[in-house]
Amino acid sequence: MILFAIIDILGAIPVIIELRQRAGHIQSEKASIAVLILMIAFLFAGNGLLNIIGLDVSSFAIAGSLVIFIIAMEMILGVKFFKEEMPETISIVPLAFPLIAGAGTMTTLLSLKSQYQTQNIIVGIVLNTLFVYLVLKNVGWLERLFGKTGISILRKAFGIILLAIAIKLFRSNTHL
Questions:
Q1: Residues 97, 103, 108, CA angle at the centre, nearest 5°?
Q2: Which of 45-54, 126-135, 166-175 has the lowest mean pLDDT?
Q3: Is the dihedral of CA 31, 9, 69, 57 positive or negative?
Q4: φ, ψ for residue 27 (rounded to 5)?
Protein backbone atom coordinates (compact mmCIF):
# COMPACT_ATOMS: atom_id res chain seq x y z
CA MET A 1 0.00 0.00 0.00
CA ILE A 2 2.89 2.37 0.67
CA LEU A 3 4.15 1.88 -2.89
CA PHE A 4 0.64 2.33 -4.25
CA ALA A 5 0.41 5.74 -2.54
CA ILE A 6 3.89 6.82 -3.67
CA ILE A 7 3.49 5.67 -7.29
CA ASP A 8 0.01 7.27 -7.46
CA ILE A 9 -0.78 6.06 -10.96
CA LEU A 10 -4.36 7.32 -10.62
CA GLY A 11 -3.11 10.82 -9.90
CA ALA A 12 -0.82 10.57 -12.92
CA ILE A 13 -3.68 9.87 -15.35
CA PRO A 14 -3.81 13.47 -16.69
CA VAL A 15 -0.05 13.39 -17.34
CA ILE A 16 -0.34 9.99 -19.03
CA ILE A 17 -3.18 11.25 -21.23
CA GLU A 18 -1.11 14.28 -22.22
CA LEU A 19 1.92 12.12 -23.02
CA ARG A 20 -0.33 9.82 -25.07
CA GLN A 21 -1.72 12.78 -27.00
CA ARG A 22 1.78 14.03 -27.69
CA ALA A 23 3.22 10.64 -28.71
CA GLY A 24 0.10 9.19 -30.31
CA HIS A 25 0.54 5.94 -28.39
CA ILE A 26 1.95 4.71 -25.12
CA GLN A 27 3.55 1.29 -25.11
CA SER A 28 1.96 -0.01 -21.90
CA GLU A 29 3.86 -3.28 -21.90
CA LYS A 30 7.22 -1.57 -22.46
CA ALA A 31 6.54 1.06 -19.79
CA SER A 32 5.31 -1.53 -17.26
CA ILE A 33 8.29 -3.81 -17.81
CA ALA A 34 10.63 -0.82 -17.46
CA VAL A 35 8.91 0.15 -14.19
CA LEU A 36 9.20 -3.41 -12.86
CA ILE A 37 12.86 -3.74 -13.81
CA LEU A 38 13.75 -0.29 -12.45
CA MET A 39 12.10 -0.89 -9.10
CA ILE A 40 13.48 -4.40 -8.56
CA ALA A 41 16.96 -3.38 -9.71
CA PHE A 42 16.93 -0.34 -7.44
CA LEU A 43 15.68 -2.45 -4.52
CA PHE A 44 18.76 -4.65 -4.76
CA ALA A 45 21.40 -2.30 -6.16
CA GLY A 46 20.15 1.23 -5.42
CA ASN A 47 22.42 2.20 -2.56
CA GLY A 48 25.43 0.54 -4.13
CA LEU A 49 24.83 2.18 -7.51
CA LEU A 50 24.40 5.62 -6.00
CA ASN A 51 27.58 5.13 -3.93
CA ILE A 52 29.57 4.03 -7.00
CA ILE A 53 28.69 7.18 -8.92
CA GLY A 54 29.19 9.33 -5.84
CA LEU A 55 25.57 10.31 -5.24
CA ASP A 56 23.49 10.18 -2.14
CA VAL A 57 19.77 9.44 -2.04
CA SER A 58 19.00 13.13 -1.43
CA SER A 59 20.78 14.27 -4.60
CA PHE A 60 18.96 11.59 -6.59
CA ALA A 61 15.63 12.69 -5.10
CA ILE A 62 16.33 16.37 -5.87
CA ALA A 63 17.15 15.56 -9.52
CA GLY A 64 13.89 13.62 -9.82
CA SER A 65 11.98 16.45 -8.20
CA LEU A 66 13.28 18.89 -10.82
CA VAL A 67 12.09 16.68 -13.68
CA ILE A 68 8.68 16.31 -11.99
CA PHE A 69 8.63 20.10 -11.50
CA ILE A 70 9.15 20.65 -15.24
CA ILE A 71 6.39 18.16 -16.12
CA ALA A 72 4.06 19.96 -13.70
CA MET A 73 4.88 23.33 -15.25
CA GLU A 74 4.07 21.90 -18.68
CA MET A 75 0.68 20.79 -17.39
CA ILE A 76 -0.14 24.10 -15.72
CA LEU A 77 1.21 26.53 -18.31
CA GLY A 78 0.74 24.49 -21.47
CA VAL A 79 4.38 25.11 -22.44
CA LYS A 80 6.33 22.15 -23.82
CA PHE A 81 9.83 21.63 -22.44
CA PHE A 82 10.32 18.04 -23.63
CA LYS A 83 9.98 18.94 -27.32
CA GLU A 84 12.58 16.55 -28.68
CA GLU A 85 11.07 13.44 -27.11
CA MET A 86 10.48 10.74 -29.69
CA PRO A 87 7.17 8.86 -29.43
CA GLU A 88 8.93 5.53 -28.90
CA THR A 89 10.97 6.86 -25.96
CA ILE A 90 8.10 8.58 -24.16
CA SER A 91 7.03 5.23 -22.65
CA ILE A 92 10.36 5.04 -20.80
CA VAL A 93 11.30 8.71 -20.17
CA PRO A 94 9.46 10.59 -18.71
CA LEU A 95 6.66 8.02 -18.13
CA ALA A 96 8.32 4.96 -16.56
CA PHE A 97 11.06 7.12 -15.06
CA PRO A 98 10.71 9.54 -13.30
CA LEU A 99 6.90 9.78 -13.32
CA ILE A 100 5.99 6.25 -12.18
CA ALA A 101 9.24 4.81 -10.84
CA GLY A 102 10.77 8.10 -9.85
CA ALA A 103 12.94 9.38 -7.07
CA GLY A 104 10.14 9.17 -4.50
CA THR A 105 9.47 5.55 -5.39
CA MET A 106 13.15 4.64 -5.37
CA THR A 107 13.89 6.28 -2.03
CA THR A 108 10.76 4.62 -0.61
CA LEU A 109 12.05 1.24 -1.77
CA LEU A 110 15.31 1.83 0.09
CA SER A 111 13.35 2.78 3.21
CA LEU A 112 11.04 -0.24 2.94
CA LYS A 113 14.07 -2.51 2.67
CA SER A 114 14.95 -1.73 6.27
CA GLN A 115 11.42 -2.48 7.52
CA TYR A 116 10.09 -5.39 5.45
CA GLN A 117 11.31 -8.67 4.01
CA THR A 118 12.55 -8.46 0.44
CA GLN A 119 10.04 -11.00 -0.91
CA ASN A 120 7.15 -8.92 0.49
CA ILE A 121 8.49 -5.79 -1.19
CA ILE A 122 8.83 -7.69 -4.49
CA VAL A 123 5.19 -8.83 -4.23
CA GLY A 124 4.21 -5.18 -3.66
CA ILE A 125 6.26 -4.10 -6.69
CA VAL A 126 4.66 -6.76 -8.92
CA LEU A 127 1.11 -5.90 -7.77
CA ASN A 128 1.72 -2.18 -8.31
CA THR A 129 3.21 -2.85 -11.75
CA LEU A 130 0.12 -4.86 -12.74
CA PHE A 131 -2.10 -1.97 -11.67
CA VAL A 132 0.10 0.49 -13.59
CA TYR A 133 -0.21 -1.73 -16.67
CA LEU A 134 -4.01 -1.81 -16.40
CA VAL A 135 -4.20 1.98 -16.16
CA LEU A 136 -1.78 2.47 -19.07
CA LYS A 137 -3.61 -0.08 -21.19
CA ASN A 138 -6.95 1.68 -20.60
CA VAL A 139 -5.78 5.29 -20.93
CA GLY A 140 -7.76 5.70 -24.19
CA TRP A 141 -10.96 4.67 -22.43
CA LEU A 142 -10.17 7.01 -19.52
CA GLU A 143 -9.57 9.83 -21.99
CA ARG A 144 -12.99 9.28 -23.58
CA LEU A 145 -14.59 9.04 -20.12
CA PHE A 146 -13.26 12.43 -19.00
CA GLY A 147 -13.65 14.24 -22.34
CA LYS A 148 -11.63 17.26 -23.47
CA THR A 149 -12.95 19.62 -20.80
CA GLY A 150 -12.52 17.07 -18.02
CA ILE A 151 -8.97 16.32 -19.12
CA SER A 152 -8.14 20.02 -19.24
CA ILE A 153 -9.46 20.52 -15.71
CA LEU A 154 -7.67 17.40 -14.44
CA ARG A 155 -4.43 18.44 -16.16
CA LYS A 156 -4.39 21.83 -14.41
CA ALA A 157 -5.48 20.45 -11.03
CA PHE A 158 -3.04 17.56 -11.04
CA GLY A 159 -0.34 19.84 -12.42
CA ILE A 160 -0.62 21.89 -9.22
CA ILE A 161 -0.57 18.69 -7.12
CA LEU A 162 2.45 17.38 -9.05
CA LEU A 163 4.17 20.74 -8.57
CA ALA A 164 3.52 20.53 -4.81
CA ILE A 165 4.91 16.97 -4.73
CA ALA A 166 8.04 18.11 -6.59
CA ILE A 167 8.56 20.99 -4.17
CA LYS A 168 7.99 18.74 -1.14
CA LEU A 169 10.46 16.19 -2.51
CA PHE A 170 12.96 18.98 -3.15
CA ARG A 171 12.50 20.58 0.28
CA SER A 172 12.70 17.31 2.20
CA ASN A 173 16.02 16.49 0.53
CA THR A 174 17.77 19.84 0.84
CA HIS A 175 19.62 20.54 4.02
CA LEU A 176 19.79 24.32 3.95
A1: 120
A2: 166-175
A3: negative
A4: -85, 90
Distance CA(26)–CA(90), nearest Å, equals 7
Residue 163 contacts residue 76 (beta carbons within 8 Å): yes
44-53 residues labelled b (16+ CB within 10 A) or e (exposed): eebeeebeee
Alpha helices in 83-138 (DSSP H): 103-113, 118-137
Which residue from 132, 104, 103, 144 is spatially nearest to 12, judged by alpha carbons? 132
- d(CA 105, CA 41) in angstroms, rounded, equals 12
Tens of pLDDT, residues 40-98:
999 999 889 889 999 887 887 788 778 778 878 887 887 877 665 556 678 888 888 88
